[in-house]
Design goal:
about 260 residues, mainly alpha, 10 helices, about 0% strand
Length: about 260
């Protein structure tokens, strides 16, 4: 029989290697734990941002646009938006496009325009891996942001590319196209006027999409949505409604009010 004798130095070496492996594992695990903690923190901040924005919208809807409460909520929104953006930059966190959109809107509302654009870019990158509808929502959100920044040409190009990528095979798809184009129509009217050729072209595209809907219910919902959006943002400019062809109004007058329920 042959016997191998393990010497004390060999035992020490094995123990040292095991200790080193444990230490390395601990370092990585602490890093992962820190990321998980920061991810939970980011989720909580985004939820807070959504709550704060909803409160501000509710107050504005009730006619309250200034005062101590508005200042307190706005300050909380600004701080939370900065915290969320810092976490996004400092850590490689897996963040959804919906969360990015919320942070981007809050940053813009707080006056951090460059940071808001960065957040919109991250939202678009994340959305491409999430699905077609998320891709469209992120792209059109960024396009509306560009409209607010008076960068109309970039906004048009971005939204056109997004709509080109989005399918147009079902009524659900067409309603998404109509929703996007209706909001774009509002921005075009507000920036270029209701008589601009581009705005008129958008109105014609909306009408064509409504005609291509395969069910009467979808056409009624689409027509109502298009007209209501125009009325909502252009109540002092009756010419805005004329950019949506008259056949839309005719389809509304012939349909029962309960058809969109």
């Amino acid at each position: 029989y042959c016997y191998s004798v393990i010497t004390i130095p060999e035992v020490s070496a094995v123990i040292s290697i095991a200790a080193l492996g444990t230490a390395v594992f601990g370092i990585f695990e602490r890093g992962n734990a820190a990321k998980r903690t920061e991810r939970i923190r980011l989720t909580a901040i985004v939820e807070k941002l959504a709550t704060l924005r909803r409160e501000l919208v509710d107050l504005a809807s009730g006619g309250v646009t200034f005062g101590d409460r508005i200042e307190v909520l706005s300050a909380a929104l600004e701080v939370s938006a900065q915290q969320a953006f810092s976490l996004m930059q400092a850590h490689e966190l897996a963040i959804t496009s919906a969360e990015c959109r919320e942070v981007a809107v809050a940053l813009e509302q707080a006056g951090y325009i460059e940071n808001a654009e960065t957040a919109w870019n991250v939202a678009q990158e994340s959305a491409r891996a999430e699905g077609t509808i998320q891709d469209l929502h992120a792209s059109r959100g960024c396009a509306y942001f560009l409209y607010r920044c008076q960068r109309e040409a970039e906004a048009r190009s971005l939204l056109e590319d997004a709509l080109t990528r989005y399918p147009n095979d079902s009524d659900r798809d067409r309603l998404e196209h109509i929703q996007s184009l209706s909001h774009q129509l509002i921005w075009e009217i507000e920036t270029q006027g209701s008589s601009s050729q581009y705005a008129i072209g958008l109105g014609n595209r909306i009408n064509a999409l409504i005609d291509n809907c395969s069910t009467p219910r979808a056409r009624i919902i689409a027509a109502k949505y298009a007209v209501q959006i125009s009325d909502q943002r252009n109540s002092n400019d009756q010419a805005s409604v004329s950019t949506v062809p008259a056949s839309v109004d005719a389809s509304l007058s012939d349909s029962p009010s309960s058809s969109d329920s």
